[in-house]
Protein 1
Amino acid sequence: MKEEAVRLDNGFFEAYPIEFLARNPIVVDRPALVRTLARRLGRVEATGQIPQHGTSQLALFHLMDFPVQLKDCSIPAQLALLMAGPKAQRTDAITQVVQQSWAFPAAAQVYEECSHMLLLSEMMATPLPHQGRRKIIANGLLALLEATRVDLIHWMPTQQMLSPADIVESYSDPQQLAQR
């Protein structure tokens, strides 16, 4: 799946899609994910089914403590989770991403071994201050890593492949998480 991250006039991205890649089918523990999201981000209302291997289902997690003011109403920011289907053929763009993934030298090999993908993205959060958006995506990422097993993370806005263990370690300090 190739999705271009669109940069807004303020320098931030319109959406922060993150691909989770795995060697084996990705199974998400829905109750664990909802509990972890609530612990990290406050009140959560989940709708839809957690996507499973071979399905095109969409799960939305409405983050009730992150209201987004629109012209005529207020809605909660959301995290969307969808199964991305089988991994697409390696393209020149992916080759470039793998080559610039210096923090995870094994990225190219792990990418070749992965055949399952799940996509996480925040939605409706563009009007929020960037600190709130960072909190949503960082905590959504960590919550998903607690609720499932994956082998590789494609952080699409930075065009890097990252190790899930490295992500968890880099966000293990609550002060670091607050700054991101």
Note: The radius of gyration is 16 Å.
Protein 2
Amino acid sequence: MPICLYAAALTGRNILLWLIYIIVAGLVWWLLSWLVDYCGLPQPFNKVAKVILAVVAVLFLINAIMSAVGSPLMTW
């Protein structure tokens, strides 16, 4: 489909919800990253935990962006 058809789904409400999702995901990622550092996990486990957090955050953001245009990756 042409990209211009997807632009019709981007309303002000969807953009605002998308921004809220980004802010909440960033805060949750920062808090969990801080918690992993605070717990003092040994070095290999620390990096693995941070990579898992980053992957989950990216999937959450991709889902938020896709739901803004009308076709979410996952439904809750």
Note: Confidence is low (pLDDT under 50) at residues 1-6.
Protein 3
Amino acid sequence: MFKYLELANPEFLFLILLLPVVAWWYYGRYRTHYASITMSNIAMFKGQSSWRGRARALLPILRGLAFICLVVALARPQTLLSEENVEANGIDIMLAVDLSSSMLAQDFEPDRLLVAKRVAADFVEKREFDRIGLVVFSGEAYTQCPLTTDHKVVQDFLENLQSGLLQDGTAIGMGLATAVNRLRESEARSKVVILMTDGDNNAGAIAPITAAEIAQSFGIRVYTIGVGTIGRAKSPVAMYPDGTYKYEMADVKIDEETMKSIAAMTEAEYFRATDGNALSRIFSEIDRLEKTKISVTEHRQKSEEYYWFLVVGAVLLLAEFLFRQLFLQTLP
């Protein structure tokens, strides 16, 4: 609900420019209307001013304020009440994030997983009217956060993601199937999965193409993102007894053909992110492609407020008249 004041006839405000002219006329009339006495010395009258003399100076001020109020009343101030009803036909989006140990590779600064989490959180913040959920996978898959409009919850889950929560591996098919299962009963006009991985499918009971066929049958679009540089990257290749990883240069292997097939089957697109900036641009492109339909209906209502200024102006004129006639009356 928005409330503010506007003027229906603002041109009447130019009448206020007449105030200096009226003041000049009043001063000239005052000098000719009231008699004056010339005295050689007024020292004896210093400090002898009465309250009537001081109060008389208020009369032109009251008249001036009354004039301003009446001019504003002529300008017809109005209170405008505006209310907007926003109806959003949102999109249901499931993020499927790879948590395999290879996501700790350092071809992204500081590593692939941290950059993916940050970029995904920024994307969630932009999707004001959509329900968003989160699925994670490595050697197996599970739902980290079901579809929700509470985007702060989704962002908190993203922030707390870390590799090692699940058995290591890359079960792309299981991750996609879990995300599709969360969307299959959705009544949203558009259902989308954004799948991020840096490897090829080497675990799980469901093949990626089979999961894509299931998504296709439910009308779910699957945007696939291959995360990793071209060539070799410093990657974890073994784990020490204390739980830390041993890093060596290793080939970056992403099953791009499968990723492209999944996207094509579901009428979406495949992207390759070779660094953090590229990943940000990919999410911006998905944000552009998947626009939420928003309908805004505005209701406006005007309420006349000029009578307040009219009443105040009349009261000031009445006060000036009574003050002058009852307390400050002079003889001609």
Note: The chain has ten helices and eleven strands.
Protein 4
Amino acid sequence: MFGYIIPNYDELKVRELKEYRRYYCGLCKCLKERYGLKGQISLTYDMTFLGLLLSSLYEEDAVKGECRCVAHPTTRHEYITTKYLYYAADMNILLMYYKCMDDWNDDHNIVKAGYAALIKRVGKKAACKYPDKAGNIADGLRKLSDAEKNRNLNVDYVSGIFGGICAEIFACKKDEWYDCLRQLGFYIGKFIYLLDAYEDLEKDLSDGCYNPYLEMHHEQNFDDRVKNILLMMMSEAGKKFERLPILENVDILKNIIYSGVWCRYEILLKQKSSTKNK
């Protein structure tokens, strides 16, 4: 359910791409510093977006440097770290830990259980640092699990639960931008959940698994309806984003919100079209 909030690399300028990579590598470094290799494994584009967004909104002083890493052992590469990238690293661990635990409770996924066990100590470390957020994330995932077990096909309701989880993560502190960030996170979270479900639909139908679109997918204009729902989610997210007084990295953030989030969707449409034409 991760990896949808990405840039459209083809539309980024060279300097913008370099800057985005500095933040991506910075999040990786933050994860390593706080949680070791176990934390680095959880690195996601979605939390890179969050770290970039918050760092740009609050114009946090950045620490810049160069380093080598497991992924690039032979060459040094630039990175940026800020306190909001460390916050994104903490949220990354919390979300991954509770999601893996939830997957184990739901379907006894051995891989997820193994990873949850691997990051159990660091997951608890992050939870102790943010007890309220950890509790709300865990409660949200339990509520989502119950809805899925009960095969709740109210698309707006189930996606709204995950939206609430992301709202909790996006609002890092209670200030004048708290409500706006919560709303931005809410609609981005709904978009992630709905696009992930759309991508998994064929597999879920084949395996007899839950999917919120089980009732809708028989409709004649199903694909168009899904597209319209996704457009509404990102339209609302865009409205909330435009209310934030962001000047730094604004073109990168706009690239992600207005273009990058649709990259996986476009790939999915091509795959569906290719399958139908066989």
Note: The chain has one domain: 9-272.
